[in-house]
Design brief:
- Pfam families: PASTA, PBP_dimer, Transpeptidase.
- It is found in: Membrane.
- The structure is a single chain.
- The chain has three domains: about 90 residues, 2-Layer Sandwich (Alpha-Beta Plaits), CATH 3.30.70; about 350 residues, DD-peptidase/beta-lactamase superfamily (Beta-lactamase), CATH 3.40.710.10; about 60 residues, Trypsin Inhibitor V, Chain A (2-Layer Sandwich), CATH 3.30.10.20.
- Helix content is about 35%, strand content about 25%.
- The chain has 22 helices and 29 strands.
- With about 675 residues, the protein is α+β, with helices and mostly antiparallel strands.
- The protein is extended and about 130 Å long.
- Helix 13 packs across helix 18.
Length: about 675
């Protein structure tokens, strides 16, 4: 068809129509972007150039009961340089004096910093690293340096702040102090006191605006935060750092002596339930020990003969026996169905009273007492244990409490031999702290208290929350029964036939029960069988101030494994040192010490507090706490560097005290 003017006009109209429609579509889209989706795209643009970052608040301090720091937050600063914002003349005028100042503060040469700054200027680097991990005083100094004192825009100074957690006691009580961490998905890991009381310590996050500059780097905008972070509250724990140090080193020495797998010590104040020390040490593959896990709270295991106290209380409360009831231990064996209970003494103890059975820790006697009196009604025995709260967790604020096991007739695992084996601490399971809570109740005339780890929450000098003692059970048994078993626990140590008599001193009062538990006892291979050594009790015996438990797992059998030999000396060492450093000191003959090395040094030099010595003692190799106590009692000012044992003392032993005002101790 021939092309005519009419055809051409028609085509032009069609094209013009399409262009008009396209223009309308573009206009509609622009209006939509601006009016409907504008906020979305503005936010996207802002996110690509400017972004709001959260600022971690300063976590509150964690204190011991005397105000000493267990954990604290400190600020650390990173210094960077934005070379683009600095004018050429300002840069040239200040680069040399700035480099000189940085060299004097940070240690590198002035030429090093001149080269670094000039390279950043040439490369137009907006985020050049100058220094990391500066403390607050260094950060303040850097802000006053030439060029940097002009601020973030004219001076190119970029300050990045982070909060780090420090533990002044170092590795001592590390697991008990614990931590609180959060991953990228917001999942918290909470351990120890830090985790338990994070709600108070944590604080409120702040906000800081940053600008994207290059390669995923973000530069803070201006000096100030958009929202200032709010510091967390301070928490005052019940931990006594002196008792904690004593417990730590006493346990460590015994673990090393017996090459044991792991162990723990807990010291609790009898009348309040305050935990004054909690030490947990586990062995590495290299044979070193550190706070690996919280065994004291988290590890539930068969308590062995320390459970005989619970069995004795049940039997006395139900009046199925009295302490003078005679039991025939026969030849040291007692067969129940197809299993035989054996005494540690070959040939047994013959006919003995229930009191003596407790003191010598006869398995056969207790198996007979409980099995013969409760086999027709086993529920009665278990109900009494449950009435004493032994089947319940303590409900601690610290995560990971081990679950107690007290089986009921009909439960999985219950059998015809259960009563006999439960009587002396098998087929039941408790954590060390759960066992100690029961012993503390006996020391407290039957009142069972919840172990307490925190005293108060504070904001500066203002108390926000105060925590008082909490009663779990006002009376786990009658006062009559409590008095009877108190005497038995005392006799375990004082009477010559008692399993704890090796720890006895006429000048040192304590009461307790030994426990030696077999692990893997179903195996007949002696090489497979391991042991748990325990001593639980309290001191002084007649007016208890503290209760304590020591549990040591898998000591070297060739060295020893009985509770009296392995755990008992730790208990005695802890008790003696607490006596020596407290108002109870008059009740203790500090020269009456049977353990060796550090224990002997400590007690010998503690006598110096009574002015028996006029020369500087040798404290090298002793724990820092012990050394400080000794030297300060001599009237010497002490400066301590580091944590742990004394590696070096600045004043030699034998120096006349009259010539010494101050001594510096370097700890390992």
């Amino acid at each position: 068809m021939p092309v005519t003017e009419k055809n051409i006009l028609t085509r032009l109209y069609i094209v013009a129509g399409f262009l008009f429609l396209f223009a309308i579509a573009v206009l509609v889209k622009l209006v939509s972007i601006q009016m409907v989706e504008g906020e979305k795209y503005r936010k996207l643009a802002m996110d690509r150039t400017e972004k709001m970052f959260t600022i971690a608040p300063k976590r509150g301090n964690l204190y011991s009961d005397d105000g000493s720091l267990l954990a604290t937050s400190v600020s650390r600063y990173t210094i960077r340089f934005d070379a683009e914002t600095v004018g050429k003349r300002d840069f040239e005028d200040n680069v040399k004096p700035l480099s000189d100042a940085l060299a004097k503060l940070l240690g590198n040469s002035s030429s090093h910093y001149q080269q670094l700054l000039r390279k950043a200027k040439v490369n137009k680097n907006r985020y050049a690293l100058i220094a990391r991990n500066l403390d607050y005083s260094d950060y303040v100094a850097v802000k006053q340096f030439p060029l940097f004192n002009k601020g973030p825009y004219k001076g190119g100074l970029i300050i990045e702040q982070k909060i780090v957690r420090e533990h002044p006691l170092g590795k001592i009580a590390e697991r008990s102090v614990g931590y609180e961490r959060v991953d990228e998905d917001g999942y918290y890991t909470r351990v120890g006191l830090e985790g338990a009381f994070g709600q108070y310590l944590r604080g409120v996050e702040g906000k800081r605006l940053k600008q994207k500059i290059a390669k995923g780097q973000w530069k803070p905008i201006g000096w100030d935060n958009i929202v200032e972070p709010k510091d967390g509250y301070d928490v005052v724990s019940t931990i006594d750092i002196n008792i904690q140090d004593i417990a730590h080193h006493a346990l460590l020495g015994q673990l090393e002596k017996y090459n044991a797998e792991h162990g723990c010590v807990i010291v609790m104040e009898t009348k309040t339930g305050e935990v004054k020390a909690i030490s947990n040490l586990g062995r590495t593959s290299e044979g070193k020990y550190y706070e690996r896990l919280n065994y004291a709270i988290g590890e539930s295991h068969e308590p062995g003969s320390t459970f005989k106290l619970m069995s004795m209380v049940v039997a006395l409360e139900d009046k199925v026996i009295d302490t003078n009831t005679v039991i025939d231990t026969e030849k040291g064996t007692y067969k129940v169905y197809n299993r035989t209970v054996r005494d540690s003494k070959h040939g047994g103890y013959g006919k003995i009273t229930a009191a003596k059975a407790f003191e010598v820790s006869s398995n056969t006697a207790f198996a007979k007492i409980i099995n013969n009196n409760y086999k027709d009604n086993p529920e009665k025995f278990v109900n009494r244990l449950m009435n004493m709260n032994l089947h319940r967790e303590l409900g601690l604020p610290v995560n990971g409490e081990g679950t107690p096991v007290i089986r009921y007739p009909g439960d999985k695992g219950w059998s015809g031999v259960s009563l006999a084996w439960m009587s002396h601490g098998y087929e039941v399971s408790l954590t060390p702290l759960q066992t100690l809570t029961f012993y503390n109740a006996i020391a407290n005339d039957g009142e069972m208290l919840k172990p307490r780890l925190i005293k108060a929450v504070k904001e500066w000098d203002k108390t926000i929350l105060k925590f008082e003692k909490e009663v779990i059970n006002p009376s786990i048994c009658s006062k009559e029964t409590a008095r009877k078993v108190q005497q038995l626990l005392k006799d375990v140590v004082e009477k010559k036939h008692g399993t704890g008599h090796g720890l006895y001193s006429p000048n040192f009062s304590m009461a307790g029960k030994t426990g030696t538990t077999q692990k893997n006892y179903v195996s007949k291979d002696p090489e497979v069988m391991k042991y748990i050594s325990t001593f639980a009790g309290y001191f002084p015996a007649d007016d208890p101030k503290y209760s304590c438990i020591v549990v040591i797992h898998e000591p070297d059998k060739s060295v020893g494994y009985y509770g009296a030999d392995v755990s008992g000396p730790v208990f005695k060492s802890v008790a003696q040192k607490i006596y020596a450093s407290s108002p109870l000191v008059d009740e203790v003959d500090v020269n009456d010490v049977e353990t060796k090395n550090l224990e002997e040094n400590y007690q010998r030099y503690f006598a110096a507090s009574n002015k028996k010595y006029n020369q500087v003692p040798n404290v090298e190799g002793m724990s820092g706490m012990d050394a400080v106590s000794i030297l300060e009692n001599l009237g010497i000012q002490v400066e301590v560097k580091g944590n742990g044992k004394v590696k070096k003392q600045s004043i030699a032993k034998g120096t006349d005290l009259k010539k010494v005002n101050k001594i510096v101790l370097v700890l390992s």
